[in-house]
Amino acid sequence: MPRIGDPAPSFTAETTQGPINFPADYVGQWVIFFSHPADFTPVCTSEFMTFAAMADKFAAYNTALVGLSVDGLYSHIAWLRTIKEKITFRDMHDVEVKFPLVEDISMEVAQKYGMIMPGEDSTKAVRAVFIVDPKGVIRTIIYYPLSTGRNFDELLRVVKALQTADHFDVATPADWRPGDRVIVPPAGSCGTAKERMAGDTDGVECEDWFFCTKEIPADEIDRAIRKK
Ligand code: BEZ
């Protein structure tokens, strides 16, 4: 089962957008690779409509979407056509899913990624999310059970948090959103710890030597991480 920090396991497969070679096709981009339990099911339908409606928001942060279930290609195609032609969810209708949906009847890819959890269901993938960075390294793994639809604002928040952490060499605290104060790395020496506590470090405010924050305005973050 892959872990955070591991290279994303590679695979080739058919998708609703043609063949895929993952993660090689996505070098230089962030990717959210996610699984859903089954085509033609309601929670999954609501998720696909939401993801498709938000695809441009993810693309603005250089983030592609790739879905997978253990259904076949023709089932995927028929389901995505039905979604576009018939389904309304909240204010979404006529939604076209333009990102690839991987067919995985053999469950080979789902097994490779630890998406099958037999205690939950041995013939369906759980709702797994892998956020993969531009070098093909897994940076986040989130699992949801079959009954619970994902929160897509949270996935976008995590993408922005990872990109902010990489660009500014900071960490992000609980419930962080761009514009909130960020955590600066812990003081690496007694001297730095003393300077920080004395308030001598530009813009850095410390609660204690190990808990220091600074402001990065939301527009500065956006200029740094938004796709040019
Ligand atoms: C759904 O997407 O609605 C669903 C799929 C599998 C089990 C339960 C719900």
Automatic annotation (TrEMBL):
Pfam families: 1-cysPrx_C, AhpC-TSA
UniProt cross-references to InterPro entries, sorted A to Z: AhpC/TSA, Peroxiredoxin, Peroxiredoxin_AhpC-typ, Peroxiredoxin_C, Peroxiredoxin_TDXH, PRX_1cys, Thioredoxin-like_sf, Thioredoxin_domain
Disulfide-bond pairs as recorded: C206-C212
Domain Thioredoxin: 2-164
UniProt keyword terms in alphabetical order: Antioxidant, Cytoplasm, Disulfide bond, Oxidoreductase, Peroxidase, Redox-active center
Catalytic machinery residues: C44 (cysteine sulfenic acid (-soh) intermediate)
Recorded GO MF terms: thioredoxin-dependent peroxiredoxin activity
Subcellular localization, as worded in the UniProt entry: Cytoplasm
Top-rank taxon: Bacteria
Top EC category: oxidoreductase
Catalytically driven reaction(s): a hydroperoxide + [thioredoxin]-dithiol = an alcohol + [thioredoxin]-disulfide + H2O
Gene3D superfamilies: Antioxidant, Horf6, Chain A, domain2, Glutaredoxin
Disulfide bond recorded as keyword: yes
Primary location group: cytoplasm
Record's subunit section: Homodecamer. Pentamer of dimers that assemble into a ring structure.
Family in the record: Belongs to the peroxiredoxin family. AhpC/Prx1 subfamily.
Functional description taken from the UniProt entry: Thiol-specific peroxidase that catalyzes the reduction of hydrogen peroxide and organic hydroperoxides to water and alcohols, respectively. Plays a role in cell protection against oxidative stress by detoxifying peroxides.
NCBIfam families for the chain: PRK13189.1
Note: The active site is a conserved redox-active cysteine residue, the peroxidatic cysteine (C(P)), which makes the nucleophilic attack on the peroxide substrate. The peroxide oxidizes the C(P)-SH to cysteine sulfenic acid (C(P)-SOH), which then reacts with another cysteine residue, the resolving cysteine (C(R)), to form a disulfide bridge. The disulfide is subsequently reduced by an appropriate electron donor to complete the catalytic cycle.
HAMAP family documented for this protein: Peroxiredoxin
Name recorded for this polypeptide: Peroxiredoxin
Natural source organism: Mycobacterium pinniadriaticum
